[in-house]
Write a structure and sequence with these properties.
Chain B: Keywords: Oxidoreductase. The complex is a heterodimer of chains A (about 180) and B (about 500). Chain A has 6 helices and 9 strands; from the N terminus they run H-H-E-E-H-E-E-E-H-E-H-E-E-H-E. By secondary structure, chain A is of the alpha/beta class. Chain B has about 500 residues and is of the alpha+beta class. Classes of the chains: A alpha/beta (about 180), B alpha+beta (about 500). Chains A and B meet through helix 1, strand 2, helix 3 and helix 4 of A and helix 4, helix 5, helix 8, helix 9 and helix 17 of B.
Chain lengths: ~180, ~500
């Protein structure tokens, strides 16, 4: 173990420079900004990841964000274990009929202000799985979506660029929670 | 003594399918109960149920089909535990009822689909029903419900723990949350579209699914695949195995709060994915394997990138293995935790590292090899203890074997075309492929116009999820993440 630890001290970091914030994502976000509801985000964002029906490809690349090359935490992003601690819901997959209620409850359990980032082609409109008896559709069919990061799956670079766009822009306060946060649920 | 080959007759096909009578079906049930035959897959379509089998000893494989036009079929689950959830799934998606089945609760259908029996005669859904977990009785027991949304970045599923103090006395899983209806979507889809759907059955093992699907289509349509394409498929499959095993070893140790291992394994995993991207243009190599061959040739720098990767692994791997070997506090968590008994692994036909850590040596690449694995030399590692430690060690040994396979494949990579035309014809095809998690079985029926009539995709997790419930027995709740990660079953592959 000593050898590995020494190597990591003297070997220099593997972490790479951050990509520029995704221009398309920035434009998408800019449209959403309302002058009356601008609010600067703090320096840190807590992310709760929700798999609403993905094939798990997106999860693999979201995991990769934590490896030494991308080191997501250096930007103040960190993944949290409960929606109660989260600012952002990172939702993957077409929303399946069997996950719809779980996603709604997770959204309701997330305190305001909150943002929803839909990740991957399926999360946009159900992708290849649209029209199935088991699929409701994209994430926006169930909860309001603030940003969509495309890709099948999006690479860690794409994810990083999208999340940085979210961080850099002033964002509107999210719409009132729908359904209402039931608190004690 | 009647054997499986007596039933299916003389054939040179690996997976012949024969229609059988109810008597033969009942005979199959006794052979499964006596563990003379392994259950490989069990699925249905309107009016028929199918049963893929493998006989111990002779190794004969085949598919038995039973007429079920009266709407039901004799349950195998009475004597064959691994058949139970498969029967419940048949009942959910096709609407055929297993007679005298010991467990009639719905499995994949949570009452929320737009239709009931989507692959049979569609009916109006009954609406969500309360799911009855198995009763647990005893003094001072308490239950812990977990999921479907979990604390980590993982797939959704519900786990119901019944505990006595810290000790788990029963775990019951409820799955089906990520059911996307893949088989129903494939039915009627053109070949190209169907291949994309099959590739997304479980994203982490997309190359294996694409390969199994392609092999099944090629068997059905009697398509010849160029040698170079077969080699490129194997290169991708072994890269996928290495990437997943590194990810798993790191993640298992991380669940024992040893994050240094995750950091080091995560670096190698990322290097594998980058090499895959450089060589094949996609980090997970999705949609690269297609019926007829492969969609993209190795990039001009691809071979060098993979060779560079192998060098990096050779350099980093000994230190990672030593880190595991030298950390007693970590092994204190993994050794004798989550023990899976050999007889259970045999009974369920557990594939992959789960079976091989519990003394079941089955490896599709060895037992039912497809080209080019029939000409490659490699070992299937085998351990007996069946604990988390053994499942880590099997993965470590498999990484070594996969690296050796990659070297052989690169050294002998043939040149030539990478794709041949698949001329559709109305026929059936079957294939089995060893993904990183175990054996993936695919059966399909192609229409003459090149669309798919039916497709069944059986993930190895079907026979591994139930074993997790057995392995956690008597362990403390805090060791569940460790056990679960060491199994790393697919939710999406199982729920379809």
């Amino acid at each position: 173990m000593r050898k590995l630890l020494l190597k990591s001290i003297f070997g220099g970091p593997l972490t790479e420079r951050a990509p520029a914030a995704d221009k398309r994502a920035l434009a998408e976000l800019a449209e959403k900004v309302q002058a009356t509801a601008r609010r600067r985000l703090g320096r840190s964002l807590s992310i709760r990841q929700v798999d609403a029906g993905s094939c798990n490809g997106c999860e693999l690349e979201i995991h990769a964000l934590n490896n030494a090359f991308y080191d997501l935490e250096r930007f103040g992003f960190h993944f949290v274990a409960s929606p109660r601690h989260a600012d952002v819901l990172l939702v993957t997959g077409p929303v399946t009929a069997n996950m719809r209620e779980a996603l709604e409850r997770t959204y309701a359990a997330t305190p305001d202000p909150k943002w929803v980032v839909a990740v991957g082609g399926c999360a946009l409109d159900g992708g290849l799985f649209a029209g199935s008896h088991g699929v409701v559709g994209g994430v926006s069919a169930v909860v309001p979506v603030d940003l969509h990061i495309p890709g099948c799956p999006p690479s860690p670079q794409d994810l990083l660029a999208g999340l940085l766009a979210l961080m850099k822009r002033r964002l509107p306060r999210s719409r009132a929670a729908k359904p209402e946060d039931s608190g004690a649920r | 003594m009647i054997t499986l080959s007596d039933i299916i007759g003389d054939t040179d096909r690996r997976w012949p399918r024969v229609e059988v009578t109810q008597d033969v079906w009942e005979f199959a049930r006794t052979q499964l109960a006596e563990r003379k035959w392994d259950l490989i897959a069990h699925w249905g379509e309107p009016g028929a149920v199918h049963l893929a089998l493998r006989e111990h000893g002779s190794g004969t494989t085949g598919i038995l089909s039973l007429d079920a036009s009266r709407g039901s079929f004799p349950s195998l689950g009475r004597d064959c535990l691994p058949a139970r959830r498969l029967e419940r799934a048949i009942s959910d998606v096709v609407g055929l009822v297993p007679d005298e089945a010991p467990d009639t609760r719905p499995w994949l259908d949570h009452g929320r689909w737009t239709v009931r029996h989507p692959q049979g005669t569609p009916e109006q859904p009954a609406g969500p029903q309360r799911y009855e977990f198995l009763p647990v009785e005893g003094e001072s027991l308490h239950q812990i419900p977990v999921g479907p949304v979990h604390a980590g970045i993982i797939e959704p599923g519900h786990f119901r723990f019944t505990c006595s103090g810290e000790t788990v006395v029963r775990l019951e899983a409820r799955l089906g949350y990520v059911h996307k209806g893949i088989e129903a979507l494939i039915a009627g889809a053109p070949l190209e579209h169907a291949a994309k759907l099959a590739a997304r059955t479980s994203g982490d093992t997309t190359v294996a699914y694409s390969t199994a699907f392609a092999l099944a289509v090629e068997t059905a349509c009697a398509a010849e695949v160029p040698a170079r394409a077969l080699y490129l498929r194997a290169i991708m499959l072994e890269l996928e195995r290495i990437a997943n095993h590194f990810g798993d070893v790191g993640a298992i140790c991380n669940d024992a709060a040893f994050s240094l291992m995750l950091a080091n394994c995560g670096v190698v995993r990322e290097q594998v994915l980058r090499a895959a991207h450089a060589a094949f243009g996609h980090r997970l190599m999705m949609d690269r394997v297609i019926p007829g061959g492969v969609a993209t040739d190795l990039a001009p720098t691809g071979q060098r990138e993979i060779e560079k990767l192998l060098k990096k692994i050779r350099k980093a791997f000994p230190a990672i293995v030593a880190l595991y070997e030298d950390t007693a506090s970590l092994q204190d968590r993994t050794v004798r935790t989550g023990m899976l008994r050999h007889d259970l692994a045999m009974e369920f036909g557990a594939g992959g590292f789960i079976g091989r850590a519990s003394g079941r040596s089955f490896d599709t690449r060895k037992v039912l090899p497809w080209a080019p694995y029939d000409t490659l030399s490699f070992e299937t590692p085998l351990l007996q203890r069946g604990d988390v430690d053994a499942r880590i060690r099997i993965r470590i040994a498999e990484i070594e074997q996969s690296c050796a396979l990659l070297r052989q494949l690169l050294d002998t990579l043939p040149s030539g075309p990478i794709l041949s035309e698949v001329v559709p014809r109305a026929a059936e095809g079957t294939a089995m492929v060893e993904g990183f998690r175990g054996d993936i079985f695919v059966w399909l029926r192609v229409n003459g116009d090149g669309s798919l009539a039916r497709c069944h995709l059986r993930d190895p997790s079907w026979f591994q999820w139930p074993l997790l419930e057995a392995a956690i027995d008597g362990n403390i709740v805090a060791d569940f993440p460790l056990c679960n990660k060491s199994f790393n079953c697919s939710y999406s592959g199982h729920d379809l």
